[in-house]
Automatic annotation (TrEMBL):
It comes from Hypericibacter terrae. InterPro entries: FAD-bd_oxidored_4_C, FAD-bd_PCMH, FAD-bd_PCMH-like_sf, FAD-bd_PCMH_sub1, FAD-bd_PCMH_sub2, FAD-linked_Oxase-like_C, FAD-oxidored/transferase_4, Oxid_FAD_bind_N. Belongs to the FAD-binding oxidoreductase/transferase type 4 family. PROSITE patterns: FAD_PCMH. This is D-2-hydroxyacid dehydrogenase.
Length: 467
C-alpha cells in the first residue's frame, strides 16, 4: 500500500495535507530564503501518531522534516527540493500535560507556543524565563531543537539549561520517554542533550519537562547611553555586582538601529534629546515585593555616570514605560525588513572580546563593501552579537546578497580569532552547515557523524541540516 494511503489510515483528513495550496506555507522558511518540496505535510495529534508516521516513513525510505512554528532563521525546518520528504508539523501537539508548582516544573508538548507556556507558568504564580521576539508564534519543539537563547540567558541560561527531560520519537519509530522531572540524575549518559540543539536530525522531540522559577514581582528597566562599547562592558560588570543575580537582560542597541526603528516602525521614539553612538537596554528583576531593585539600578547607574561610563540614562517608572522601552528592542529587529537586503550573523564571543570583535569585523566589512551599514545589536550580557549588514544606499539587493559568502567569511574569521562561534542561538540548518566546517575541529564532526549514524542509520531525519 502506498505511503500516503497508509498515513491516511492513522491521521484525520485535515491532518494530512497534499494539495499545493495547503502545503505551501510549510515548504518555505520565514525569511523566504529556502524552498522545498514534500510528498505531504502531516500534523499528528499525539506521540503515538508521530511514532507510527515515523515508522512508516522509515519503512518507505522517506525523510522526515520536523517543523514547529517555522520561525527559524537558518532553514532547518524547510525540506529539500527532491520531494522525497514528509514535513512533520508539531502544531497540533500543543497541550500542557502537567504543571508541578511545588517542583517548579511544567511538562508541555512540542507544539506549544512559547507564549502559551509563559502564560501557564504565570497563572500558577511561577515564571518560565525564555523570551524572544517570536514568542507569540515559535513553538517549544523548535526552541529545543535550536537550543534557543533570547534576552534572559544572562540570568537563566538557554533552552539546554531550562530542560530537565524529553520525550522523543526515534528514527525507527520507537518512543524514548525521558520525561523525568529530576534536577539530579547521574545514572548514565544524559541523553536529552543529544536532541537539544540537534535541529531534528536525530529524532522528533514530542514533549519536554521544563524548569520554572519564582515569578518576578518587581523589575527595573533602564535605557542607557554609554560612552563606548568598552564602557558598556565595564558597566555590565558593575550592574552584575550591584544586583547579585538580579540582572536579567543587558541588550546592546547601536545608534543606526535606533534611527532605523524610529524611521520605519510606528511607535518608536528616541529616549534622549541628544544622539549617542551606543545604547543599552538593561533589566533587573526580583521575586520579592518592595525589594528596592529600582534603587539598586539608580545607584549603580549614577555611580557609572560620575565615572564617565554612562552619558545618559532613563529608568521606567511603571509598566507602561517599561513596555515602551522594550518595544524599541523589538522595533530594532523589525526595522531591518524595511530597509532592503540584509545579511545576518549570529555570532558569539567571550564577553571580554565583544568590543574588539565589533571593531575588527566592522573595519573588515566596510573595507570590503564601501557604504555598507553595520547593524550590530543583541545580547551583550552573554556575548551574542547579531552582527547584521544592510545594503549600501544605491546598491541593488541582488548585488549585495551576491557578496554574502565573502562577507560571511570576513565576519566569521574575526569571530574565530576571538575564540567564538558562528552560531549562538539560530542553529546551523542549511544556512551554515557547510561553512561551520571551516571553524570547528574535524574530530568534532567525526564524533557528530558517528552519533548520527548510530541513532539514524538510514539518514531519514532532516537530511542536509547541521551535517
Amino acid at each position: 500500500m502506498p505511503l500516503l494511503e497508509r498515513l491516511a489510515e492513522i491521521l484525520e483528513p485535515s491532518d494530512l495535507l497534499t494539495a499545493a495550496g495547503d502545503t505551501a506555507p510549510y515548504l518555505t522558511d520565514w525569511r523566504k530564503l529556502y524552498h522545498g518540496e514534500a510528498l505531504a505535510v502531516v500534523r499528528p495529534r499525539s506521540t503515538e501518531q508521530v511514532s507510527r508516521v515515523v515508522a512508516l516513513a522509515a519503512e518507505a525510505g522517506v525523510s522526515i522534516v520536523p517543523q514547529g512554528g517555522n520561525t527559524g532563521l537558518a532553514g532547518a525546518a524547510t525540506p529539500r527540493s527532491n520531494g522525497n520528504n514528509l514535513v512533520l508539523s508539531l502544531e497540533r501537539m500543543n497541550k500542557i500535560r502537567a504543571l508541578d508548582a511545588a517542583n517548579y516544573t511544567i511538562t508541555v508538548e512540542a507544539g506549544c507556543i512559547l507564549q502559551q507556556v509563559q502564560e501557564a507558568a504565570t497563572q500558577a504564580d511561577r515564571h518560565f524565563p525564555l523570551s524572544l521576539a517570536a514568542e507569540g508564534s515559535c513553538r517549544i519543539g523548535g526552541n529545543l531543537s535550536t537550543n534557543a537563547g533570547g534576552i534572559a540567558v544572562l540570568r537563566y541560561g538557554n533552552m539546554r539549561d531550562l530542560t530537565l527531560g524529553l520525550e522523543v520519537v526515534l528514527p525507527d519509530g520507537r518512543i524514548w520517554n525521558g520525561l523525568r522531572a529530576l534536577r539530579k540524575d547521574s545514572a548514565g549518559y544524559d541523553l536529552k542533550h543529544l536532541f537539544i540543539g540537534a535541529e531534528g536530525t536525530l529524532g522528533v522531540i514530542t514533549a519536554a519537562v521544563l524548569k520554572l522559577f519564582p515569578r518576578p514581582r518587581e523589575r527595573a528597566s533602564a535605557f542607557v547611553a554609554v560612552a563606548s562599547l568598552d564602557a558598556a562592558l565595564a558597566l555590565l560588570g558593575r550592574m552584575r555586582a550591584a544586583s547579585g543575580d538580579g540582572l536579567t537582560s543587558f541588550e546592546m542597541i547601536p545608534r543606526v538601529a535606533l534611527e532605523k526603528a524610529i524611521a520605519h516602525v510606528p511607535g518608536s521614539f528616541d529616549p534622549f534629546p541628544d544622539p549617542h553612538d551606543a545604547y543599552l537596554l538593561i533589566e533587573m528583576t526580583s521575586s520579592r515585593e518592595n525589594s528596592g531593585i529600582t534603587a539598586v539600578a539608580e545607584e549603580a547607574l549614577a555611580a557609572a555616570m560620575e565615572d564617565g561610563l554612562v552619558r545618559e540614562a532613563t529608568i521606567a517608572q511603571n509598566e507602561t514605560q517599561a513596555a515602551a522601552l522594550w518595544f524599541l528592542r523589538e522595533a530594532v529587529v523589525e526595522a531591518q525588513r524595511a530597509v532592503g537586503a540584509s545579511i545576518k550573523h549570529d555570532v558569539v564571543v567571550p564577553l571580554s572580546a565583544v568590543p574588539a570583535f565589533i571593531r575588527e569585523a566592522t573595519a573588515a566589512v566596510e573595507a570590503a563593501v564601501p557604504g555598507i551599514v553595520v547593524y550590530a545589536f543583541g545580547h551583550l550580557g552573554d556575548g551574542n552579537v547579531h552582527f547584521n549588514l544592510l545594503q549600501p544606499p544605491g546598491m541593488k539587493p541582488e548585488a549585495f546578497l551576491a557578496e554574502m559568502g565573502r562577507l560571511n567569511r570576513l565576519v566569521h574569521d574575526v569571530s574565530a580569532r576571538h575564540h567564538g562561534s558562528i552560531s549562538a542561538e539560530h542553529g546551523l540548518g542549511q544556512l551554515r552547515n557547510k561553512e561551520v566546517r571551516l571553524y570547528k575541529p574535524a574530530i568534532e564532526f567525526e564524533l557528530m557523524e558517528r552519533i548520527k549514524l548510530a541513532i539514524d542509520p538510514k539518514g531519514i531525519m532532516n537530511p542536509g541540516k547541521v551535517l
